Sequence to fold (360 residues):
Amino acid sequence: MKHLIDPTDLTVAETEQIIALAEDIIAHRARYSEACKGKKLATLFYEPSTRTRLSFTSAMLELGGTVIGFSDAASSSVSKGESVADTVRVIRCFADIIAMRHFKEGAPLVASQYAGIPVINAGDGSHSHPTQTLTDLLTIKREKGRFDHLTIGFCGDLKFGRTVHSLIKALSRYEGVRVVLISPEELRLPDYMLQEMSANSAIEFREVRTIEEVMPELDILYMTRVQKERFLDEEEFNRVKDSFVLDPEKMKTAKPDMIVLHPLPRVNEITREVDNDPRAAYFRQVENGKFVRMALIYTLLKWADENRPFEHTPVFAEPYSVNEMECPNRRCISATEDVDQLFRQSADGWRCAYCESRPK
Fold:
């Protein structure tokens, strides 16, 4: 069974296949209007979402399918203590594919081990957001025409910004990509990501503390908001929330063809005056999200039709160390639910399969 839990679950060829399909859908929308007729998508959103949830809903409806699910965990059996594993084993009786957003890191991976139907990670804590990555890639392709030989600056919350983590992983597989990390010390990219990038000779990166010092060299500026919901300490949040703000003055030194991306929602990190700049691509980015999710749903359902659903659970997609180590991360699904403690071997040692943390 094929799922999308992490951007690297798709090969470069599979990723480009989905991007190409999304472009074909844009060009020939009527051709796909009944492509998923009779199929049901279950949207299981355990935390608030506007763009992602409605984008999945709109995508499935435009493919001729139907949508069930919930947008608030409090309105589901989760409020009664039902586990992710049991929830998806119930949902598989009613749906053909699942899109899950969860506040716990690794929850969609658990879901994929029990569902027996394709599972799409629509964001798990501060860990990963692969469909936003596909959205970003489609936007980059349509705006810049390529994925290689680009300089991209990631600005703001790089510590908790799951969209940043996912896009860096995806772009690291292309040649000539230069990454500039722009953040305060408190919101630096996590150590495991910095180590992965250091180990990857194909990607060049550096860390800076201001937008102004790198703006002239950027092909893409990827802005993020400082996410209050990811902080355990409100005092720390208040100290860094206004760290970086993009305004027309800062845009004056940017390349004429640079584009500004943002996964949204924004708060104050991009001023309203920037919206009318033709280089502001973040609302075009939103629409691209619908088309790329149409392509992904269509592709995963086709793959599922070629594979029998599994009967015995859990099913692990790769070799893991099982229940031999323990994850210390309080945000990990393994900290609150009865799941196997899974660890995978990485270049710098063992990492939790759910959240990338090192074992205790």
Remarks:
- The chain is about 30% helix and 15% strand.
- The radius of gyration is 20 Å.
- The mean pLDDT is 91.
- The domain at 7-129+287-305 is CATH 3.40.50.1370 (Rossmann fold).
